[in-house]
Each structure stands twice: as structure tokens, then as C-alpha cells.
Amino acid sequence: MNGQAYGVSVVRGLVLTGDELTFYGRIERAHDSSAFLDDQAYALTGVDPETFIVVRAKPGLRDDAGPWGDFMGLFGAGQDRDLCAYFTRLGPTWCD
């Protein structure tokens, strides 16, 4: 995305209502986009999009720990602590 590399992650504890999403761009290249509903990526209000963006997950994805949720997280370089407020549980290890 815009020349930036991101790592894909399941983000079960992430809670989004939709109001905090802003279209950020289209995913240009992905090693495996099979879990993505489409190629649109969204930034979260107050969170640096170079550190974290989301894409919509295909409905019904799950593993042994349960459903994945509506979004997949894409973690870029660095850490933005403003992201921590969006997690109700299972936040990044660097969140307090």
C-alpha cells in the first residue's frame, strides 16, 4: 500500500463501529489476500495509517480460537498507542 509493507493479523479484540473508518487506498500487492473481502484498506481515526490499517475479512472465517471478526489488521512499521483504545481484549503486546 503506497509502497509500505504491512503484516497481516487476526484482530479479534478490535471493536469498530464504522464511523472511525476512512478509506485509505487499495491493496496493490498481497502475498495472500484470500481472507480479504475486497482490496480496500481503511485507516482508523487518530491512528497513523503507516502503523496500522484494516481490511474487511471474508464472512465466516474462524480457527480453533473462534471467529476472526469483520476485519483483518495490517500492521506497518512502528507503534501508535492510539490504536490501543480500539481493542477491548487481545490488543498488541505493546498496549498497556
Describe the overall structure.
The chain is mostly beta strands and 96 residues long. The chain has one domain. The chain contains no helices and 7 strands. The strands form 2 sheets. Strands 1-7-4-3-2 form a 5-stranded antiparallel beta sheet, with no helix packed on it. A hairpin with a 2-residue loop joins strand 5 and strand 6. It is globular, with a radius of gyration of 12 Å. The mean pLDDT is 91.
Query: SSE order, as H and E?
Result: EEEEEEE
> How widely separated are the two ends?
28 Å
Total beta strands? 7
What count of helical segments does DSSP give?
0
Q: What does the average pLDDT come to?
A: 91
Fraction of residues in helices?
A: under 10%
Radius of gyration: 12 Å
Structural class: mainly beta
Task: Describe the structure concisely for a colleague.
This protein is an all-beta fold and 96 residues long. It has one domain. It is built from no helices and 7 strands.
Task: Describe the SSE topology.
Blueprint: E1 7-10, E2 21-26, E3 36-44, E4 52-57, E5 62-63, E6 66-67, E7 71-75
Antiparallel strand pairs: 1-7, 2-3, 3-4, 4-7, 5-6
